[in-house]
Amino acid sequence: MTIPSEINALIEQLNQDLNQIEQEAAEGLVLARAIIQRFPNNDALIQMLAFLNSARFYADTERSRIQIIVESLSRSNQTTGEEIQEAGEDLSTKLGRVLETKIRVISAKISLENYNETIRNDRQTKSYARGNSRNCDLRRTANYAGS
Length: 147
Hints:
By secondary structure, this protein is an all-alpha fold. Helix content is 90%, strand content 0%. The chain has helices spanning 5-38, 43-75, 81-146.
Protein backbone atom coordinates (compact mmCIF):
# COMPACT_ATOMS: atom_id res chain seq x y z
CA MET A 1 0.00 0.00 0.00
CA THR A 2 1.17 3.51 -0.67
CA ILE A 3 1.74 5.66 2.35
CA PRO A 4 -0.62 8.67 2.60
CA SER A 5 0.93 12.05 1.82
CA GLU A 6 0.24 13.33 5.35
CA ILE A 7 2.27 10.45 6.80
CA ASN A 8 5.03 11.05 4.26
CA ALA A 9 5.11 14.73 5.25
CA LEU A 10 5.47 13.78 8.93
CA ILE A 11 8.26 11.35 8.08
CA GLU A 12 10.08 13.97 6.01
CA GLN A 13 9.79 16.54 8.82
CA LEU A 14 11.02 14.00 11.37
CA ASN A 15 14.01 13.08 9.22
CA GLN A 16 14.95 16.74 8.71
CA ASP A 17 14.72 17.44 12.43
CA LEU A 18 16.67 14.29 13.32
CA ASN A 19 19.38 15.30 10.85
CA GLN A 20 19.55 18.72 12.47
CA ILE A 21 19.77 17.16 15.94
CA GLU A 22 22.70 15.04 14.80
CA GLN A 23 24.45 17.99 13.15
CA GLU A 24 23.96 20.39 16.06
CA ALA A 25 24.95 17.73 18.61
CA ALA A 26 28.10 16.89 16.65
CA GLU A 27 29.08 20.57 16.54
CA GLY A 28 28.28 20.92 20.24
CA LEU A 29 30.43 17.88 21.04
CA VAL A 30 33.40 19.45 19.28
CA LEU A 31 32.97 22.60 21.38
CA ALA A 32 32.41 20.65 24.60
CA ARG A 33 35.51 18.50 24.08
CA ALA A 34 37.65 21.55 23.44
CA ILE A 35 36.40 23.29 26.57
CA ILE A 36 36.56 20.21 28.76
CA GLN A 37 40.26 19.84 27.96
CA ARG A 38 40.82 23.14 29.76
CA PHE A 39 38.36 22.40 32.57
CA PRO A 40 38.29 18.60 33.03
CA ASN A 41 36.50 18.67 36.40
CA ASN A 42 33.61 20.89 35.33
CA ASP A 43 30.50 18.87 36.12
CA ALA A 44 28.23 21.03 33.95
CA LEU A 45 30.43 20.45 30.91
CA ILE A 46 30.56 16.72 31.55
CA GLN A 47 26.77 16.67 31.83
CA MET A 48 26.43 18.63 28.58
CA LEU A 49 28.84 16.25 26.83
CA ALA A 50 26.74 13.29 28.01
CA PHE A 51 23.51 14.98 26.91
CA LEU A 52 24.84 15.68 23.41
CA ASN A 53 26.04 12.09 23.03
CA SER A 54 22.62 10.89 24.20
CA ALA A 55 20.91 13.18 21.69
CA ARG A 56 22.86 11.61 18.84
CA PHE A 57 21.93 8.15 20.07
CA TYR A 58 18.29 9.27 20.40
CA ALA A 59 18.28 10.49 16.78
CA ASP A 60 19.59 7.14 15.55
CA THR A 61 17.06 5.22 17.64
CA GLU A 62 14.12 7.34 16.49
CA ARG A 63 15.19 6.99 12.87
CA SER A 64 15.11 3.19 13.29
CA ARG A 65 11.68 3.32 14.92
CA ILE A 66 10.33 5.48 12.11
CA GLN A 67 11.69 3.01 9.58
CA ILE A 68 9.83 0.19 11.35
CA ILE A 69 6.56 2.16 11.11
CA VAL A 70 7.16 2.86 7.40
CA GLU A 71 7.95 -0.79 6.69
CA SER A 72 4.86 -2.01 8.53
CA LEU A 73 2.66 0.39 6.53
CA SER A 74 4.35 -0.52 3.22
CA ARG A 75 4.35 -4.27 3.80
CA SER A 76 0.67 -4.69 4.34
CA ASN A 77 -1.57 -4.64 1.28
CA GLN A 78 -4.62 -4.29 3.48
CA THR A 79 -3.66 -1.52 5.87
CA THR A 80 -6.78 -0.25 7.57
CA GLY A 81 -7.64 3.37 8.22
CA GLU A 82 -7.20 2.64 11.92
CA GLU A 83 -3.62 1.43 11.37
CA ILE A 84 -2.84 4.50 9.31
CA GLN A 85 -4.33 6.74 11.97
CA GLU A 86 -2.33 4.97 14.69
CA ALA A 87 0.86 5.35 12.66
CA GLY A 88 0.09 9.05 12.17
CA GLU A 89 -0.50 9.53 15.89
CA ASP A 90 2.74 7.70 16.73
CA LEU A 91 4.67 9.84 14.26
CA SER A 92 3.05 13.04 15.55
CA THR A 93 4.02 12.13 19.11
CA LYS A 94 7.55 11.42 17.92
CA LEU A 95 7.64 14.78 16.17
CA GLY A 96 6.79 16.55 19.43
CA ARG A 97 9.60 14.76 21.26
CA VAL A 98 12.03 15.32 18.41
CA LEU A 99 11.26 19.05 18.32
CA GLU A 100 11.76 19.28 22.08
CA THR A 101 15.09 17.48 21.81
CA LYS A 102 16.14 19.69 18.90
CA ILE A 103 15.44 22.81 20.95
CA ARG A 104 17.44 21.45 23.90
CA VAL A 105 20.37 20.47 21.67
CA ILE A 106 20.44 23.89 19.99
CA SER A 107 20.28 25.58 23.40
CA ALA A 108 23.15 23.44 24.68
CA LYS A 109 25.23 24.26 21.62
CA ILE A 110 24.54 28.00 22.00
CA SER A 111 25.54 27.80 25.67
CA LEU A 112 28.80 26.11 24.68
CA GLU A 113 29.45 28.72 21.99
CA ASN A 114 28.83 31.52 24.50
CA TYR A 115 31.05 29.84 27.09
CA ASN A 116 33.78 29.35 24.50
CA GLU A 117 33.49 33.00 23.45
CA THR A 118 33.72 34.12 27.09
CA ILE A 119 36.88 32.07 27.56
CA ARG A 120 38.36 33.53 24.36
CA ASN A 121 37.50 37.10 25.45
CA ASP A 122 38.96 36.52 28.92
CA ARG A 123 42.22 35.30 27.37
CA GLN A 124 42.36 38.30 25.05
CA THR A 125 41.63 40.69 27.92
CA LYS A 126 44.34 39.14 30.08
CA SER A 127 46.77 39.15 27.18
CA TYR A 128 45.94 42.81 26.45
CA ALA A 129 46.34 43.72 30.13
CA ARG A 130 49.71 41.97 30.31
CA GLY A 131 50.80 43.74 27.13
CA ASN A 132 49.76 47.14 28.48
CA SER A 133 51.50 46.59 31.80
CA ARG A 134 54.67 45.64 29.93
CA ASN A 135 54.36 48.78 27.82
CA CYS A 136 53.93 50.88 30.96
CA ASP A 137 57.00 49.24 32.50
CA LEU A 138 58.96 49.92 29.32
CA ARG A 139 57.85 53.56 29.30
CA ARG A 140 58.78 53.99 32.95
CA THR A 141 62.16 52.42 32.32
CA ALA A 142 62.68 54.68 29.31
CA ASN A 143 61.66 57.74 31.35
CA TYR A 144 64.05 56.85 34.18
CA ALA A 145 66.85 56.22 31.72
CA GLY A 146 66.21 59.56 30.04
CA SER A 147 66.21 61.57 33.30
